[in-house]
Amino acid sequence: MRRVAITGCGVISPIGCGRKAFFGSLREGRSGIGPITRFECGSFAVQVAGEVKDSFDWPESVARVAAVDRKVGYGFTACIDALGDAGMDQIGENTLLHLGTSVETFDLEKLVYKGKLDLEESVRRSLSDRGSLFQVPLDTTARLVTEQYGRPGLTLTNCSACAAGAQTVGHGFHEIRGRRFEKAVCGGFDSMVNPLGVGGFQLLGALTTDNGRGERACRPFDAARAGAVLGEGAAVFVLEPLEKAAAEGKPILAEIVGYGSSLDAYSLSAPDPEGDGAARSMVAALRDAQLRPEGVHHINTHGTGTRLNDEVEAKAIRHVFANGWERIPVSSTKSMTGHLIGASGAVEAAACLLPLLEGVLPPNPCLDKPGHGCELHHVVRSGHPFEGDTVLSNSFGFGGQNATLILRRHDG
Amino acid sequence: MENEVVVTGVGMVTPLGATADETVAAWEAGEEARREPIEALSGVGVTGAEGFVLPRFDASERLGRDRRMIKFMSDAAVIGCVAAREAMNEAKSRERFAPERIGLFAGTGLAGARVREAIPMVEASIDDEGTFSYGLLGERGLAATNPLLSFKILANMPPCLVSLLEGIKGANLIFGPWEGQTGAALVEAWRAVAEGEVDCAVAGAADFASHPATYVYLHHAGLLHGDGVPAPGAAYVILERRESAERDGRKIHGRIAEVKVTTSADTVSDPLVSRLGRTFAAAPAILLGLAIRLGWPEARCVGADGQAFHARLEAVR
Prior knowledge:
The structure holds two protein chains of two kinds. Chain A is α/β, with parallel strands linked by helices. Chain A has twelve helices and 18 strands. The radius of gyration of chain A is 20 Å and the shape is globular. Chain A starts with a strand and ends with a strand. Chain B is an alpha+beta fold. In chain B, the strands form two sheets. An eight-stranded mixed beta sheet of chain B has the order 5-4-6-7-1-8-10-9, sandwiched between helices. A two-stranded antiparallel ribbon of chain B has the order 2-3. The chains are: A alpha/beta, B alpha+beta.
């Protein structure tokens, strides 16, 4: 089996766009969470989120869709950045394009006519105005990328909720390793920072309403954690065979060495309290990497800041790494970015590049005191050096989908 | 014989029948499924605003003690779970394989909750001037909303409900929302079984393209040209290695000799459309299920995403 390298990375996040800005914030523990400005949220119980602050000069075809569904623009930009980073100016038959996200965006305003929900009229208006988007399908970003860069050998849109971003990278890794493609452009994009997204998750009780905490509202593993904070953004990677990339003198950001997935089959919204699904995902990734647990030197958790999720993940980590979890430094970057849902796994894989490339760990700056059952070797302060070479990133999704990636430093 | 991938279970809910047996029998008899005007669109003057309809069936009965979960399900999830249950029962997958060794590889269609489920939320959010207000959505619209609505629009929920009801705990991938994506899920299922990543794969899709809101999008996007009458449908197949099927004495419907998805410049094509409608994401799974049951040598379709699904099938003697 051939080895797989990351040769390009594009990141759009609440703590910076582009690898340099993203790394800078991660390194310093700078939060991108704050009051929601995307819409008037005064009547919502949830009023904080991790918003992308940058503005973008999108092509007209992208800008038109992004006006309704911003995540499409984020995914598009992350793709362009990743391709540019890898020195690619087109996509061809030997390339897999695999992007992940969570849920379609609907424009509810378009359903209302003269004071009532009027589907007939909304249909009439929709049909008379081809520019009027009522529903944005999940594959829109991939379609826009292929219009600009050419058609890949296979285009996939992954919709595995919070596990989507990690699944795309893991699948791309397996496709390159299995010699089915020579290149994979893969990652996740999402934005739920809109009235329906915030409202929907608020209804499910998954988000903190501790709005007064501002940039410290998301507190993974803390005793006072009160729920997740939504974020938005994207991360896309270019994967190639390592030996080929090295022979061509391409910069290699990291090597992907393992991927595993599992299902809880326990509940639609709550994790298996024993952490069985999460543990099996990590074990599958370790097996895939032919790695023993002690070979992992850092973990970036899923760490949402919800009471049950964090406790279950900590339990699963202690179970899988029973002989030494106390020595493995653990970061939780949602404390700074918020939960990017379909993009989270990819953005957190990008966060894993920081220790591998620059030898420093991202912190969990909002952790004051670990909650009951959340005992791990948490990295709280910025500047924590990293001397290992192998990192593991967890992503656990609504519906019970779990995915784990393992990345390794490339010293070639 | 090692690594041969065979089909030992097929489940379907299609406009031609509420089970795989019914669908196969109706197809063999040359029947065409029933289509009706889409009620919510009548009077709008949309040409061809009709959809194929499912035969009456009792999902509660089909799902047994899991009927309590129906309240969490979109219409697509209901028919997906019913189809998956039928396939799992036929292959006796639960009894024969550890949950961790069963994988789930699925396609899912455009989100399409029933419009009436959004009515309380929308109507509570309309201001005095008759326009939709996000301020009022937060103030009273959310309170009027059934919290379960979120579960009905999340794209991964129909397959995840299959996982939950059937106790599937292994490797998984979910793609959407068009035919090529489900085709890719079937390819991944085949590969996972062939390469030993799982011992059994539950693979398929459910879609409910005849929902009014979905119809609007499909029409708007120009995806209902020609005979493209939308239809609801679901199919799941059970894949396993021939060795395990023969060891356990299971009926083998056929062998999948080759399966792939490729970029295609061809126009959309689906051999099932004239008789059971365009089922979009569900089409490759229904096609594969029908083909393997009817002994066709291949299953092929080209989807709205410009990708072709192709499976080469062989009888097993």
